[in-house]
Design brief:
7 strands; 41% helix; globular; alpha/beta
């Protein structure tokens, strides 16, 4: 049976002493997370890729564009404001109360890496971000695309991002329940692990920050459904809260 988590302020979780330090006291009041969520900044990899974002914060305004598929869009959350992007925006605003922070949600469910890249320049031109959060890889693996195809599409996106001069945080796929009844999802975690490792390598290669999700989700057993909803694919409220808390801890700490 999957355990249900109790929502508590993030401050109480951090007080247990099992978590890495987060940016500051203001970060941990933005929203509640399940008590079973392990919050840590340790997995976040800056890769010297956040200079523009720091400068934007110092100037008083940071704009972030979030692109990717359904987990960026917020599929599975019971309310729009309980999805990943709204929670990250709330957490970063609490972490940096002296700055105007906007996170633009341009997630589209079902997209592959290629689909996101095909609209990436237009999204950047419209949002004019300092930082792009790019979640990729899940649908590629679910559709049996190769890692070589993912890397090729990523390279097209890299050219667009670098031409725009924006900072980048890469986000890897979610982990699927091992006990899923969905035959199409069974055994997919090995493929998702492969693309997760590839994304970590690409971040290091390009000097992009990486905010991993697949690995940390192995520690989410105490969350309701392991952080995944009844469709065995999209995150539930507990999963989104835990993921967002870790992003705020990692990204917020790096930006300081």
């Amino acid at each position: 049976m999957r355990a249900a988590g109790t929502l508590v302020p993030l401050l109480a979780v951090l007080a247990l002493g099992a978590c890495a330090p987060v940016p500051g006291p203001s970060t941990i009041r933005a929203f509640d997370i399940p008590a079973a969520c392990p919050v840590s900044a340790a997995a976040f990899r800056e890769n010297d890729g956040l200079a523009r974002s720091r400068a934007a914060l110092e100037a008083g305004s940071l704009t972030i564009l979030a692109v990717g598929s359904s987990s960026i869009e917020g599929a599975g959350a019971s309310k729009r404001e309980l999805g990943y992007v709204p929670l990250v925006e709330a957490g970063l605003r609490e972490a940096f109360p002296g700055a105007r922070i906007t996170v633009v949600n341009r997630g589209i469910g079902g997209e592959t890496t290629a689909d996101t890249v095909n609209r990436l320049k237009a999204e950047i031109d419209t949002a004019r971000p300092d930082l792009v959060l790019w979640q990729l890889g899940t649908n590629d693996m679910l559709r049996d695309l190769t890692l070589a195809r993912v890397v090729s599409d990523f390279d097209r996106g890299r050219d667009i991002l670098d031409a725009a001069g924006v900072d980048v945080v890469l986000i890897d796929p979610q982990r699927l329940p091992e006990d899923t009844d969905n035959a199409g999802f069974r055994g997919r975690n090995s493929l998702l692990a492969g693309v997760s490792g590839t994304i970590a390598y690409l971040g290091t290669r390009e000097g992009y920050a990486v905010d991993p999700r697949f690995g940390p989700m192995s520690g989410w057993a105490g969350l309701e459904g392991g952080g995944v909803g009844p469709d065995d694919l999209h995150l539930n409220d507990a999963g989104y809260a835990c993921w967002a808390a870790n992003t705020v801890a990692g990204l917020g700490g790096a930006l300081r």
